[in-house]
Design brief:
The structure holds two protein chains of two kinds. Chain A is of the alpha+beta class. Chain A is 24% helix and 33% strand. Chain A has two domains: 230 residues, Rossmann fold; 109 residues, Nucleic acid-binding proteins (OB fold (Dihydrolipoamide Acetyltransferase, E2P)). The longest helix of chain A is centred in the middle third of the chain and has 18 residues. Chain A is elongated. Chain B contains twelve helices and no strands. By secondary structure, chain B is mainly α. The radius of gyration of chain B is 24 Å and the shape is globular. The chains are: A alpha+beta, B mainly alpha. Chains A and B meet through β6 and α2 of A and α8 and α9 of B.
């Protein structure tokens, strides 16, 4: 039995349809990340699961039971918000125990549960403080503690790390992953940060304009993006997208540049078809023997520390490559990049769909 | 160097205002203090120095004591009711429904009316011969015969309090509504998921955000209610049988009706002192609330 079923969920505000039929089935213990830019409907979907927004159609089942008619408190969920949403005049202890207090759990039992969670999150020393006396990271721990203490079937996270600074965000990300590995609970996590999605998720749903663009494991999303949108959304720097036309077993990139059409696509791509060739910056290599090669003129070289990001031009098209930091490259230099066949992604230029 | 120059310029710019303030507030104040130590009449002799006699007589008089009780009663009941009505109205107007904006604008109306207009309006409503209240109450059968609401000592003060509430609760509602809009959506959502019912939500989510602004409203309204004059003067002039006489009315009667400028001045200063004490106590309360809330 799945822990969470989202079946054909729709949401309309007047004329505008913000969710156009979402279907996801989540096994117990999965970590689902809803990934997308703002306005894609990911937060609306999370709010519908929580019961903070009403669905216009479809069904949401938690543990097999339809919950659309149930009050948020009766859905067996807990939620962590971007703004932490702590009760400002209650101590950390009461904040964490608030859900239990409202459910009339006896004080002694409540205290035990709160202390257990506080220990897990290393905030035992803060239990008597008010939220205003805590740092952002500590507040987020308290917010997570408030969710954990209730031991719900499904945890919902609404961009919980967005308000933290970069360093803390990374720490909390690892912390969340550790918690998930330890507790093995079902989690649904909304973010627009593709790194968070890649690192935390067991499955990612990339959303766009109220639809799921692709649902898959992080590896699938990264290695086999289903659409151009997914291809550009996941990965930093983003995947290089080169306009190309198939011509006699070659992919013509313009200005005499071309790559051989990989064997796998030979019989599926007719000559003259307009395509987009996707190559991840990290898939480009300087070792000419590694695979088919293309020449490019280096325009800008940026050293980020762990790698050298090279921007180069192939005729009128631009390409970025992430190379080892010690590579000796200067602007204006002519380079030959090699790319392995299975590192090439081919999309239809019109529909944006992957050519499988 | 520039500091002295700046402060010289600041004083220079403030001088006209200070001059006006000294002329219209400072000087009369000094005059009043001087007057309060004499037995001066409003017209005629300048009066002779009587020391603290006026103060002693006023504080000991049953008139003053009764009036003080009336004033405190008026302030406590009307401000209390205004706060409750105001918060209730704000909670309602914070809900989403059609016509909310229109209703919010409409609610401000009583507060926007000049007090004299409001008082006249309510005098019409309470009119013993053709008043709307009498008509309404007899028509629904709650009342056998028309009553003179403002003419009977038993009902006049309550009738006044109702009129004052109607005028002033929108101010409280306005302040509360602004505070309610500052309650973060996420916290409300979190309390829903945590299972807090309406009462607990009000207590733990809304009240912390409401407390500070409400204390400010409380301060403003109590001080105003303590000094109330105009609405009472228009509706009852302190009658019947002095049942609606508040301190400001008493000051007016003493100084102008009875033309006893000396004792009127001493009474005015007593009222000023009481209001100042009230303001100081409230200022401490505001500081405490502001320090505690977040």
């Amino acid at each position: 039995m799945s822990a969470l079923d989202i079946i054909g969920v729709r949401k309309t505000y007047g004329e505008i349809e913000t969710l156009k039929g979402i279907d996801i089935a989540l096994e117990s213990g999965e970590f689902l990340v809803l990934l997308g830019s703002s306005g894609c409907g990911k937060s609306t979907l999370l709010n519908i699961i929580a019961g903070l927004a009403e669905a216009s159609g479809g069904d949401v089942r938690i543990g097999g039971r339809s919950v659309l008619a149930a009050h948020p408190k009766d859905r067996d969920i807990a939620m962590v918000f971007q703004s932490y949403a702590l009760y400002p005049n209650l101590s950390v202890h009461r904040n964490i125990g608030f859900g239990l207090e409202m459910r009339k759990v006896p004080a002694a039992e409540r205290d035990r549960a709160v202390r257990e969670v506080a220990k897990l999150l290393q905030i035992e020393a803060l239990l008597d403080r008010k939220p205003s006396q805590l740092s952002g990271g500590q507040r987020q721990r308290v917010a997570i503690g408030r969710a954990l203490v209730r031991k719900p079937q499904v945890f919902l996270f609404d961009e919980p790390l967005s308000n933290l600074d970069a360093k803390l965000r990374m720490e909390m990300r690892t912390e969340l992953k550790r918690l998930h590995q330890m507790l093995k609970t079902t989690m649904v996590y909304v973010t627009h940060d593709q790194i968070e999605a890649m690192t935390l998720a067991t499955r990612i749903a990339v959303m766009r304009d109220g639809r799921i663009e692709q649902l898959g494991t992080p590896e699938e999303i990264y290695n086999r993006p289903a659409t151009l949108y997914v291809a550009t959304f996941v990965g930093a720097p983003p995947m290089n997208l080169l306009d190309t036309v198939a011509d006699g077993g070659r992919l013509v990139l313009g200005d005499n540049a071309a790559l051989p059409l990989p064997q796998a696509w030979k019989d599926r791509v007719r000559d003259g078809r307009r395509l987009v060739l996707g190559i991840r910056p990290e898939a480009l290599q300087l070792d000419a023997a590694a695979g088919p090669a293309i020449s490019a003129t280096v325009e800008v070289v940026e050293l980020t520390g762990p790698e050298l990001v090279v921007s180069a031009s192939i005729g009128r098209q631009r390409i970025m490559a992430c190379l080892p930091p010690r590579s000796r490259i200067a602007a204006g230099q002519r380079l030959t990049f090699a790319v392995e066949e299975d590192a090439m992604h081919l999309f239809d230029a019109e529909s944006g769909l992957r050519i499988a | 160097m520039s500091g002295t120059w700046m402060s010289t310029r600041a004083w220079l710019l403030m001088t006209p205002l200070l001059a006006v303030m000294i002329a219209v507030i400072g000087w009369p104040m000094v005059q009043t203090v001087g007057l309060s130590f004499t037995d001066a009449k409003l017209v005629g002799t300048a009066g002779t120095f009587v020391g603290l006699d006026n103060y002693a007589r006023m504080l000991a008089s049953s008139n003053f004591q009764r009036t003080l009780v009336t004033t405190v009663w008026f302030a406590v009941v009307s401000v209390g009711a205004e706060m409750m009505l105001g918060v209730l109205a704000a909670l309602l107007l914070n809900q989403e429904f059609r016509g909310r904006t229109a209703l919010r604008a409409l609610m401000i109306l009583p507060w926007a009316l000049p007090t004299v207009v409001n008082a006249t309006l309510w005098r019409l409503i309470y009119n013993p011969e053709y008043g709307a209240l009498n008509a309404a109450l007899t028509q629904i059968g709650l009342l056998d015969a028309y009553r003179s609401w403002l003419g009977e000592p038993g009902s006049a003060l309550t009738a006044l309090i109702v009129a004052d509430c109607w005028k002033n609760f929108p101010l409280v509602a306005l302040i509360a509504l602004a505070a309610l809009q500052a309650v973060p959506r996420d916290i409300t959502a979190a309390s829903l998921v945590d299972g807090a019912g309406p009462f607990n939500r009000f207590r733990f989510v809304i009240l912390p955000y409401l407390a500070g602004p409400l204390v400010v409203a409380l301060v403003l309204r109590t001080i105003e209610a303590f000094k109330v004059f105009d609405i009472i003067w228009v509706m009852t002039r302190g009658g019947p049988a002095n049942s609606t006489r508040t301190l400001s009315i008493l000051v007016y009667q003493e100084a102008f009706s009875f033309q006893r400028a000396g004792s009127g001045a001493s009474l005015a200063l007593i009222v000023t002192l009481l209001v100042t004490l009230l303001a100081l106590a409230y200022a401490a309360l505001v500081r405490k609330t502001a320090g505690r809330a977040f």
